[in-house]
Amino acid sequence: MIPARYEASRFPGKLMKDLSGKPVIQRTYEAAVATALFDEVYVVTDSEIIYKAIAQAGGAVLMSQKEHQCGSDRLAEAAEDLDADIIVNVQGDEPFIDAPSLEKLIAIYQADTENNVDVASPMVRIHEEENVSNPNNVKVITDSNNNALYFSRSVIPFPRDTSEKIAYYKHVGVYAFRKGALMDFYNHSITPLEAAEKIEAIRYLEMGKTIKMVEIDKPVIGIDTEEDLRKAILYYEKHS
Global pTM? Predict the structure, then answer.
């Protein structure tokens, strides 16, 4: 399921911006379908513009009936009556999501025979200092079993001892939920740390849910700014 909100605060209307001949949201939908990993793929939106674009392209699209604060809430409303065990959330502004990254998330649940994992999500190693300090990049720290401890827009961990070698990881905004965990999230009010950081993944942690992180090698190109869109166009034209 691909949550698609038209009014993005940093880059309004970004999902309908042209990415080499098609809207960003259509590119993302087609990339998710092309992985051939899912029984069904839907765009879930609050926008008539996005709804019409996906429908006219022959895609599956659902219209939200309520106002929502975040993508998880939007998907939960749409998924409430669906017969599904695992629901994967691919962000609408990530048209370059690839099958290997999603396969790693699915593999977590295949191995989780005791149903200990509530949510699975990818992370990618950050090497550039400017990307570590950039608050638009959500960082994640984990325990020794790769369970998320915390997410932040700040630099975590803070390098007080600069002689210590620290690996920094960016959280990639893709999730695989057990349906029960997603519905619990939907029925829970916004939590204090989530509200402070504006990171929905924190609500799961504050609720006591387990988020299993998996490292991926290929950075996912999200489109948050006009500069990101220019980079995405160059990347698409180079690799298509």
Answer: 0.86
